[in-house]
Amino acid sequence: MDRDSAEPTVDGMPGERAQEWADYHHQFSAPSTYVYDFVWDFTEEAIGPFCTDIDGNVLMDFTSHVAAAPLGYNNPKIMEKFDEFDLVDPTKIAGQDFYAAGGWPPEDPELPGPTQLMDRLTDLTSHYDMDTVFLSNSGAEAVENAIKICYAQGGHRAFTFDGAFHGRTLGALSLNRSKVNHRKGYPEIGGVVSVPYPSTQEAYEKQWLTDGPGGNVLADKLDPEQGVIAPEEVAYLIIEPVQGEGGYRVPHDGFVSDLAEIRERFDVNVVADEIQSGLGRTGEMWAVDHLDLDPDVITSAKGLRAGATVANSDMFPKEKARLSSTWGAGKIVDSMQGVFTIDAIHEYDLLDNVAERGRQMRELLEDADLPNAIDVRGRGLMLAVEFDTKERREAVVKAALKRGLLVLGCGYKTLRLLPPLDVTEREIELALDVFQSAVEEVA
Ligand SMILES: Cc1ncc(COP(=O)(O)O)c(C=O)c1O
């Protein structure tokens, strides 16, 4: 498949094989968040945003596996480096208990592994004075470990935001405020309070600013004289610098500077959950880099291919076995892929590409005057279109799929577009033509 000339070619979606495959799969699989009967055939050709499904359809993937494949399919920048690696067994190792080296010396071995992934991550977070990493297997685990290290500092209360999503393990799900099913009937960590996440001037004024002593809903709660929560009992505040599941909402600047002030004034640890928004997706390495707010802990996963909790060494408990995980740092291939991804972002100026292609995509979406679309928002290549109803959004996702474009819902009636970080001008134009005709058909 030639990336420069590939186009979506679809002969009925979902095809017969895809439907049969999905039925077979569901004989064994527990219900999860399956979105559509798209079945990627990894034995067939794929490059960049283009992939082949089990019926031979060629599709454009503008979901990047929900930001978990930031460089798209079979990116040569990753694949040529993988060629140097002869698969070994075990590749999935007990990496928190044993070290693994891809040759010598540790600063620049033949092949990178978990040690180099941690090294790269501390480089990427040194401007926040972070120098230490705990690697795990998933986003939820990265969040679990972030909140554990904050609780270990003292305090049993925490703040999260309306619209938040932080994962599905019991600790992480206690922080979710985007969909009822995430928490319904499950036990939760106590002491978690949610406050609004204003993204517009109107919401900032209405939901966030008050006439209270500190001037906003969060500071009022913490006010030593008139508040209801003792600041020293607060272990952390956790925020997505752009909300993901909650609908690709960008925080209002005033809200962000209030948070920065609250962090200083009440000495509250800020955890930036960068699991969806990090690793270049918004045009900066971390979405929090766009904000005037310094995080104390960063969580990363998805595009990193491993989970990571990053902070200053002072934040981590010193005793043995307070944090651990058999496979935490252990997947050699994942760590290697994480390092290659970070290196490719630097080497090929992908932050600039994200900013430029993000601008292009946003302009095309805005200029298209899409019927029944009520908002276009996001940052970089983390963009979304909100529709007037949930039914309309779902119909557009289906109509786009029928035409060979994969997109995903988020929030209540919003649809997200997240192409690979190295997406080209031609690919954005191609995908947006398909998208526009899907929206028009639905209208
Ligand atoms: C912001 C955010 N935090 C945490 C998670 C959980 O990650 P995982 O599914 O790898 O556990 C996600 C996943 O979508 C996410 O978007």
TrEMBL record:
Q: Which UniProt keywords apply?
A: Aminotransferase, Pyridoxal phosphate, Transferase
Establish whether keyword Transferase is in the entry.
Answer: yes
Cofactor names:
pyridoxal 5'-phosphate
Question: GO MF annotations for this entry?
Answer: transaminase activity
Which SUPFAM superfamilies does the entry link to? Answer: PLP-dependent transferases
Gene3D superfamilies xref list: Aspartate Aminotransferase, domain 1, Type I PLP-dependent aspartate aminotransferase-like (Major domain)
Q: Which domain of life is it from?
A: Archaea
Family, according to the entry, reads as follows: Belongs to the class-III pyridoxal-phosphate-dependent aminotransferase family.
PANTHER family given in the database record: 4-AMINOBUTYRATE AMINOTRANSFERASE GABT (PTHR43206:SF2), AMINOTRANSFERASE (PTHR43206)
Its protein name is Aspartate aminotransferase family protein
Source organism per UniProt: Halorussus aquaticus
